[in-house]
Design brief:
- The protein has 246 residues and is α+β, with helices and mostly antiparallel strands.
- The protein is 39% helix and 15% strand.
- The strands form two sheets. It has a five-stranded antiparallel β-sheet. A two-stranded antiparallel ribbon has the order 6-7.
- Helix 7 packs antiparallel against helix 10 (215-227).
């Protein structure tokens, strides 16, 4: 992706996005200095920091959905610096408010660059969510978007084709009663599977054998439901124990 294609997505008056090469040099310089990036990331909660360090040094990761899942699970406000072609997009996640702030239009980020995104760095958010008393730190209104649709798209169409670590292993799954399936952008076999999971539990192997499903599609659906806080995972169910044994 070249700068000529990327530039029109930035609203007039907004700062230009940093080049990925320049940001990488910045990260390399901080790595070389005592108390650089490590000091910044240490401001995250110990549990979130431990999760991020599983994916790579100081929060780096190739699979964006893993990092997003960790930030949502720990309900923290963070900024994820994403390499998008030759530019860096700072995506700020407000987990409790279920919002994200992004300087690139969401249809551009999801529609054209979803498979190109790579996490370069994660740090505590400097921006504040809409309505915060520190109004000067609240981003432009048109740059805020609902978190749920982004998580769904990342799970269903992103790079990851395996279950997220938190739901992997011997288990059976069921849709949580609190999930509003009608609000999900699902149809056909996927919606039928969601409705069936609302009535009965199933293992990944069983779900993959349902009409219109296969292992990858079933895996992506379970990840997507988990990120919507709409998945019940049972590891003590007899079917889960049986799967684990074999």
């Amino acid at each position: 992706m070249n700068s000529e294609l990327f530039q029109p997505t930035i609203p007039i008056g907004e700062p230009e996005l940093m080049r990925a090469s320049a940001y990488q040099r910045y990260l390399d310089e901080l790595h070389a200095e005592p108390g650089g990036i490590s000091t910044r990331i240490s401001q995250l909660s110990p549990s979130l920091r431990a999760d991020l360090l599983r994916f790579g040094h100081d929060g780096g990761a190739s699979e964006v959905v893993e990092v997003m899942a960790a930030c949502v699970r720990h309900a923290k406000r963070v900024t994820i610096h994403l390499q998008c072609g030759d530019r860096v997009v700072p995506l700020t996640v407000f987990a409790q408010e279920r919002l994200v702030h992004c300087p690139v239009p969401m249809e551009e980020l999801i529609g054209k660059h979803l498979l190109d995104l790579r996490v370069m760095h994660v740090e505590p958010a400097l921006l504040r969510p809409p309505g915060d008393e520190q109004a000067a730190l609240v981003g432009a209104e048109h740059m805020h978007h609902a978190l749920a649709p982004l998580l769904w798209e990342m799970a269903m169409r992103g790079l990851r084709r395996e279950l997220l670590p938190e739901i992997a292993g011997p288990a059976v799954y069921r849709v949580a009663p609190s999930l509003d399936a009608s609000a999900l952008p699902a149809s056909g076999a996927v919606m039928a599977a969601i409705q069936r999971l609302a009535r009965q539990s199933a293992s990944l192997r069983e779900l993959a054998e349902w009409p219109g499903m296969d292992r990858e599609r079933a895996t992506r659906l379970l990840n997507a439901l988990y990120l919507q806080s709409g998945l019940i995972v049972s590891r003590s169910h007899p079917d889960a124990v049986r799967d684990g044994w074999f």
